[in-house]
Design brief:
seven-stranded mixed sheet, six-stranded mixed sheet
Length: about 425
C-alpha cells in the first residue's frame, strides 16, 4: 500500500521554495540569525583506517584537527587543507585522518586561527568503519527537499543509537541556489549536521536529480569529500559514485543524475544525452568493482540510488536500469534502496508489474524499497540493521512513527521476505 501519489513537482515547488527561503529570512517572516564564522564540523569519507573532518568557515587563517584515542591518549594534530567554495564567502577546511584502527573510537577538536586569536570547537567523538564487525546500523533519508520540519518529525520517532551513520539518498537539497553566497544551502547543511549529529556520525551523500539543478549545482561538490569526486573537474568527469563496507554489509552508491528518459526532448534542460552518457561511464567502473573482494566477501549487499531502477509509478531511470540492474543482481545484491517517487513502495523480487505510464511491464530482479517525501504526510526514514540474524529494514513515517513496511533477509543462504 502507498501513502499517496507523487506530489507533482509543479505544485510542490512553491511550498518547497518558500520553506527553503524562509530559513534565510524571507520577507514577512522573522529573519534567521546570522551564521557564525565557523560552522559545525562534520565527518566525511569514512573508512576502516581513515576519516575526514570537514568544517566550513569564513574569515579564518588556519584550522587543525586535534585527535586523541577515546581515553585521551596519543594526541596528534593534523592540519586542515583549505578549499574555497566558489561563489560564497566560505572555505571548506578538511583534515584527512589516516592510520586509524578499524572500529576504533576517537575524540577530536578543530582549532581555528584568526589573527592572534585561537578558538576550538567542542570535543566530538567518532568511530571508524569496521568491515569485520558483526553488526551495523544506518538511517536512510531521501526527498526532504529542504523541509526541516519533516526531518525533525522523522527524528522524533527514532533514537540516536538506531544508526551509526546516515545516508542521504538524494533531493535533500532542493535546486541548490547560489543566491546570497549560497546562504540557503550552507544554512541547510549546517542544520542537517546539527540534527543528525554529523559531527560524530558520517553523512554519506548520494546525489538526486534536484541536486543537479539550481545555480549552485556546479559548486555543490565542494561541500563534500567523496572517494572519487574532484569538485573542480568538468561536470562530465565528476564521479559521485562510490562504495564502502560497514560491518557485514557492502553498500554501493550510484549516481542516477537527472530525471530523464530516452523519450525526453534532447533540447530539454534535463539534457538526456549528457546524462545517458554519464550513467554509462559509471558502468565501466561498476564492472571492475563488482569483481572485487569487498563485494564478493560481504555477507550482505545493498544498492543505493536516488532514482529507482524499477518503479510501477513510472518514476524510474531507464538507462540506469538497463545498465546496472542485471549486473548487481548477478553479483548477489540483496536489496535496492531508492527515493524520488515521493510515495513509499516495496517491490518484491521477480514479480512482474505494469508501469503506470505503460503499457510496458517490468520485473525487479531483487527487492526494491522506495522511501517517500517531502511532506509530513509522505516523509519516511528507512532504518537498516545487519547482524548474524540477517539484514533487516524498517520504514517509519513522519506523521506518527508508524511502521509502514518491514523487510528482512535471513542469514547468508536463506531467503528474503517482507515483514
Amino acid at each position: 500500500m502507498n501513502l499517496t501519489r507523487r506530489t507533482l513537482l509543479g505544485q510542490a515547488g512553491i511550498a518547497i521554495s518558500a520553506s527553503a527561503f524562509s530559513q534565510a529570512g524571507a520577507a514577512g517572516s522573522p529573519a534567521a540569525p546570522p551564521l557564525p564564522d565557523v560552522l559545525l564540523p562534520y565527518l566525511q569519507h569514512p573508512a576502516p583506517d581513515a576519516m575526514s573532518i570537514c568544517i566550513l568557515a569564513r574569515n579564518i587563517e588556519a584550522a587543525t584537527a586535534v585527535l586523541t584515542d577515546e581515553d585521551g591518549s596519543g594526541p596528534r594534530t593534523v592540519p586542515a587543507a583549505p578549499r574555497a567554495v566558489p561563489g560564497t564567502p566560505w572555505t571548506l577546511w578538511k583534515a584527512r585522518l589516516t592510520a586509524l584502527e578499524p572500529g576504533g573510537r576517537y575524540r577530536y577538536r578543530v582549532r581555528t586561527v584568526r589573527g592572534s586569536a585561537e578558538d576550538s570547537t567542542e570535543p566530538r567523538a567518532f568511530r571508524t568503519l569496521d568491515p569485520r564487525a558483526a553488526s551495523m546500523k544506518a538511517a536512510i533519508f531521501n526527498d526532504i527537499h529542504d523541509r526541516l520540519p519533516t526531518l525533525e518529525s522523522l527524528l522524533s520517532h527514532i533514537r540516536p543509537d538506531d544508526f551509526d551513520f546516515t545516508i542521504f539518498n538524494g533531493d535533500m537539497i532542493n535546486d541548490p541556489s547560489a543566491a546570497n553566497g549560497a546562504e540557503v544551502v550552507i544554512r541547510l547543511w549546517n542544520d542537517y549536521v546539527r540534527l543528525l549529529d554529523g559531527s560524530s556520525k558520517p553523512i554519506l551523500f548520494v546525489r538526486g536529480n534536484h541536486e543537479v539543478r539550481g545555480s549552485f549545482r556546479k559548486s555543490l561538490g565542494f561541500l563534500f569529500d567523496l572517494p572519487f569526486l574532484e569538485a573542480d573537474a568538468p561536470e562530465a568527469d565528476q564521479q559521485w559514485h562510490y562504495a564502502l563496507n560497514a560491518g557485514p554489509v557492502h553498500f554501493l552508491m550510484m549516481d542516477t543524475g537527472e530525471d530523464d528518459s530516452p523519450a525526453t526532448d534532447p533540447t530539454s534542460y534535463k539534457r538526456p544525452r549528457f546524462w545517458e552518457a554519464y550513467r554509462r561511464r559509471q558502468t565501466a567502473w561498476l564492472d571492475e568493482h563488482l569483481a572485487t573482494a569487498s563485494v564478493r566477501d560481504a555477507d550482505y549487499r545493498v544498492f543505493v540510488s536516488h532514482i529507482p531502477l524499477h518503479n510501477p509509478a513510472g518514476w524510474y531511470s531507464i538507462v540506469s536500469r538497463d545498465e546496472w540492474s542485471a549486473r548487481v543482481a548477478e553479483a548477489g545484491f540483496d536489496v535496492m534502496l531508492a527515493g524520488h517517487d515521493h510515495a513509499w513502495k516495496f517491490l518484491p523480487a521477480n514479480r512482474p508489474f505494469t508501469i503506470r505510464k505503460g503499457p510496458e511491464t517490468d520485473t525487479a530482479p531483487i527487492p526494491v524499497i522506495i522511501g517517500g517525501g517531502p511532506s509530513l504526510k509522505e516523509g519516511t526514514v528507512i532504518l537498516l540493521h545487519a547482524d548474524a540474524e540477517g539484514l533487516r529494514t524498517r520504514m517509519i513515517a513522519a506523521d506518527g512513527g508508524v511502521m509502514l513496511h518491514a523487510w528482512s533477509r535471513g542469514p547468508v543462504g536463506t531467503a528474503a521476505s517482507p515483514g
